[in-house]
Write a structure and sequence with these properties.
The structure is a single chain. The chain is of the alpha+beta class. The chain is about 50% helix and about 15% strand. The chain contains four helices and two strands; from the N terminus they run αααββα. A two-stranded antiparallel ribbon has the order 1-2. A hairpin with a 2-residue loop joins strand 1 and strand 2. The protein starts with a helix and ends in a 12-residue tail after the last helix.
Length: about 90
């Protein structure tokens, strides 16, 4: 895993509080990414590539909301299942 997997950019902090906040965020992101890799059995790069392309849009026509979204791929369903997250698009757990 690398910063490019997360599309991270360098941040130049000058105060102690800013530096500590930045390091806290970086270490939290590393812990979360390690957890995701361990639970799903997938690389962080694959998780990001799988989920990044998923989009959803809600529009209102004549007072009624309509939602359109990309269908979940098998890999996306696997990620949700591994994390114990019900498919938010069906309202049902897999």
């Amino acid at each position: 895993m690398s910063k490019t997997d997360l599309r991270a950019r360098p941040i130049f902090s000058h105060t102690r509080d800013s530096i500590e906040a930045h390091l806290t965020i970086v270490f939290a992101a590393l812990a979360i990414s390690r957890y995701l890799q361990d639970v799903t059995g997938m690389s962080l790069r694959k998780i990001v590539r799988t989920l990044r392309s998923l989009q959803e849009v809600t529009i209102t026509i004549a007072g009624h909301e309509h939602t359109a979204f990309d269908p979940l791929t098998d890999d996306a369903v696997h990620i949700l299942d591994s994390l114990g997250i019900a498919n938010p698009r069906s309202g049902l757990a897999h």
